Amino acid sequence: MKSLALALVLAAAVAAAQRGRSQPQPARVVTVTAIPGVVASGAAWAIAWQGTDNADGVVGADDGGLLFAQEQPSRVSKLDRTDHASVVLTDTHGSGALSIDAAGRVVAVQRTCTDPGRSTATGPCIEPTAIAVLSPERKTLADNIGGMPLGRLNDLVAARSGTIYFTSGGAYRLDPAGRVSSLGENIRANGIMLSRDERVLYVTNGNTILSFDVGSDGSTSNRRDFATLAAGSAGDGMTIDAEGRVYVTSNPGVQVFTADGAFLGLIPTPRPAISAAFSGEGKRTLYVVGSGASIDGKEFETAAGVRNNAKTIYRLPMLTAGFAGRAK
After folding, report:
1. 325 occurs within a structural domain
2. Rounded CA gap, 61 and 327, in Å?
3. What is the pTM of this model?
């Protein structure tokens, strides 16, 4: 329980920081340099979507579209391959990150009413956060660990075994029987991702990435440092490609590593990147969510003390393809 208590303290600290956070910086001009086999020199980011109602936890759909969670309006939206957006799920209890499991179910972290920018005038948040299935049915998989709340949830990845790994300050495992267990203490996690064969689990830990061996029963062992974010900043979301390379979002952009943890380079992004996924035809498009948005040619800003949830989804043509054996 010590690790859970620490995770909740960290989550509260993050929430306090976000309440006082300044407006996102305007989009910056970036130049993409070549990473052999990954991205071509001069590849250009294009805006696929932008809005004031948040976007996070992106995951590719099997038709080449992109699902993204919108926590505050409590819905999941979808971009098709022509960048047309539509709402596909509503009343998602503040879902903020998405995964698709081996059965094709959309699984989410439900942040309920824990948004740090939420008005206190609406009263205390009493709805527990949860890991839940959103589609095709609605089902809560877990909303506590040993009777303690899960805290403000960050990210998740669903394994083919039925195990779900998720983060909430720390890192956790939800087994197929519905039991939640901690992956260990002193982890400042946000993003989480599995290798292609699902025998290795990657977890962001501030400016480093941890890796764990994954057993046949979904248990984890052999915690170790996998890599350091050589381009700076702390890690946020993650995805992998067909060659097993690991992509980590951060303030300067997407940092790319080999499956052995060697740093290959930075793909700079116009805005600080928080989530990434491959999709599109042949999964050869990298989608990234950036903080902030320009609406009608003007940078969107909120009133003083009001959290700015505006986001922009960018897409970038890649030389490589995303991993085809899992949605993300």
Report:
1. no
2. 7
3. 0.93
